[in-house]
Design a protein that fits this description.
It is built from 6 helices and 11 strands. About 35% of the residues are buried. It is α+β, with helices and mostly antiparallel strands. It has a 4-stranded mixed beta sheet with strand order 4-5-1-11, with helices on one face. The chain has a single domain, classed as Alpha-Beta Complex (Ribosomal Protein L22, Chain A), CATH 3.90.470. The radius of gyration is 17 Å and the shape is globular.
């Protein structure tokens, strides 16, 4: 599993230049964003798709009934963005990825979404709570059914437990520049994380 991150802030002032490189649907989504931050994140995600999967046309992607995208006759991927970063995970096997800017985690969300064992493991630590959240999001994205599976019905820490959707997943977690970065895949190859300069994606 290969994971690529890019800080989208250097793309400020280059939205139109970047949008011209994207497929029509993603270009329209970017231009309809309600603020610059969201537009930059959308642009970063689109540019990662272009660089690492050579996605330049809407016809290259298909979607399942829950909206999970995939490449026609290509590798599996998962795209995400939050805070200041866009990210993509690419694998020959089913994969899901999530990224979240670290902040104070909402206690009510922890109560609703984490098992009692996970809450005990996290012990109120915000980084651990975001580790749980992003890993669970990653598993659900990899399964391809989104939030139709309640998060509290399975555990990812301190070890995989309960009825984990899709069975045995290889989990990855890291903290990068104030962001929690997680991925889940069936790939036995060790995850490799690469930070890509945003300006390189415009070339």
């Amino acid at each position: 599993m290969d994971i690529y991150l890019t800080d989208v802030r250097p793309l400020a002032g280059r939205l139109e230049e970047g949008a011209a490189l994207l497929p029509a649907s993603r270009r329209g989504k970017l231009l309809n964003c309600n603020n610059e931050r969201n537009a930059l994140l959308s642009l970063g995600a689109g540019l990662l798709l272009r660089r690492f999967l050579d996605i330049t046309s809407d016809s290259q992607l298909r979607y399942n009934e829950f909206g999970k995208p995939s490449v026609t006759d290509g590798p599996e991927f998962s795209l995400t963005h939050s805070g200041s970063y866009a990210a993509i995970a690419v694998s020959a096997f089913p994969v899901g990825m999530d990224i979240e800017g670290l902040r104070t985690f909402c206690p009510g969300v922890a109560d609703r979404c984490f098992t009692s064992g996970e809450r005990l493991w996290a012990n109120g630590d915000d980084v651990k709570l975001f580790e749980l959240w992003t890993l669970k999001e990653s598993v659900l994205k990899a399964v391809g059914r989104g939030l139709t599976i309640p998060m509290r019905t399975f555990a990812v820490r301190p070890e995989l437990a309960g009825d984990v959707p899709g069975g045995d997943w290889k989990l990855f977690f890291a903290v990068h520049d104030g962001h929690a970065v997680s991925a889940a895949s069936k790939d036995n190859k060790a995850a490799a994380l690469t930070v890509v300069q945003a300006a390189e994606l415009l070339l």
